[in-house]
UniProtKB/TrEMBL annotation:
Family as reported in the entry's similarity comment: Belongs to the ATPase delta chain family.
Annotated membrane topology: Peripheral membrane protein
Primary location class: membrane
Name by which UniProt lists this protein: ATP synthase subunit delta
Organism in which the protein naturally occurs: Paractinoplanes atraurantiacus
Single annotated GO MF: proton-transporting ATP synthase activity, rotational mechanism
GO cellular component: plasma membrane; proton-transporting ATP synthase complex
Amino acid sequence: MASTVSQQALAEANDRLTAGTATATAAQLATVADEILSVAGVLRAQPALRRALTDPSRSGADRGELLRSLLSGKVSQVTVDVLAALVSGRFSRPAELLDVTERLGADAVLSSAQKAGNLAEVEDELFRFGQIVSGNPELAITLSDPGAPTERRVKLVEDLLKGKAQPATVRLIEVALEGFGGRSFEGSLTRLVELTAAKRDREVAYVTVAKPLTDADEQALAAKLSDIYGRQVSLKVDVDPSIIGGVSVKVGSDLYDGTILRRLNAAKQAFSK
């Protein structure tokens, strides 16, 4: 988890990114996002560079100039300026620089999707892809295998989603394959769904039901949860017949489990005592 000081560096870099891309098109923003994520890839592969760019014995301006000398002429000026601002900040440990650079790149991908007007679609596509993966053990093992070349797993995702998902969705799944913020592939996808929802100023509610909800039921549940949490809620519904009936809702660390399966398990435990 990023520290308070690295979060401050990320916030300042995001402000610089917003200002520097205020008039950019969605495609231009996507290019900047790709450049930032490419730099994250270099940082992942070069621990010595992470240490140099977070060296507390060097001033922030010095670290920023080092970054500029490495990137100038290789990426856009916006990307250079944003990342120079990032490394000028303070970090508790070198690994945090990689985490916040990945986060900055993911934020840029989301901004490009927002500008293109398909952020809600990206959110749903990320969630649905996660469901597809969790429902296919062979695919889950293949995509989650850190020992398999990332390029091969990226190619598999691109082949699976060609013409079926937004470019931003595919790019974020590629970010998840790298282990976003040090998470597992599944955990990375979940976190990216939540960040996408947050970009839309929404809370994510993971809902498990035994059979599909009607549109009216979904709207009523979303309205009730919105009243509870004081903001709009984005429902992510998973149909699982094994729960028999009822509904389970998870929002952040809050879990409301009203499934028949839970009640049966509770009854079994009570009888076994």
